[in-house]
Amino acid sequence: MSRLKDFVIDAHGGLPRWRAFEQVSADLRQGGVLWGLKGQPDTLSHTTVTVGLRNEWALHAPFGAGRRHSRFEPARVALEREDGTLLEELVGPRQSFAGHTLQTPWSDLQLAYFAGCAMWTYLTLPFLLAWPGVETEELEPWPTDSGDWRRLAVRFPRTIATHSTLQTLYFDGDGLLKRHDYNVEIAGNTPGAHLVSDYIEVSGIRFPTRRRIYARQPDDSFSTEPLVVSIDLSNIRLS
User: Fold this and answer.
1) Cα dist. 139→1, 15, 136, 151, 171 in Å?
2) What is the arithmetic mean of pLDDT over 157-182?
3) What is the DSSP secondary structure assignment for residue 131, as one 8-state letter?
4) So what's the pLDDT on residue 13?
5) Architecture of domain 2-238
6) Which pLDDT belongs to residue 217?
7) Domain boundaries, the chain
8) 20 to 30 A from 142, CA-CA: which of 1, 190, 217, 222?
């Protein structure tokens, strides 16, 4: 168990190098059918995301029209002006999704919460596996046309806001993350298969720049239609 976790963290650049930084930012383009289903087709189609590496927080700027940005933390999400003036906030945001299904529209603050916890999770993996309270267990390999992928079942503590308590990560022979499975609890436990590719190296850390998310079936297979979410990252920088 620990050997695979350590192997994949080292493959992405290693904890000592990762811990030399406090945040990561990237230019972000997003597409897919999810945003229209939620009544937010263009709000975050082209923006910049910044996430913390030592605490869980995320910013999206701009956040739609009006020169706003979002500020996400697990217990609070807010929309602010460029100068930091508070426009609106939601305390205890996860509770606001009670009873939601995949088709339930999101308010701006709910979108900010989802996008914040999602991108924080994506940009901090696999280093997030070393956080206190995160538990991992190696599963049987997953066969692919390019060889078997090793898998980790991950259990997140309640102190971390993420898609679901239980998630599964798939790694290729080089230890690079290739797929990420979870259920989106705040959208009716919708199951997703999240494929990652097109790695680049930034300051010694390896990041995938292309992400495609599809509906996952009970046997963990998936179809590439419809494309639920597309995420393309560029200009990644650590500081």
Assistant:
1) 9, 23, 10, 5, 11
2) 97
3) S
4) 98
5) Clam (2.50)
6) 96
7) 2-238
8) 190
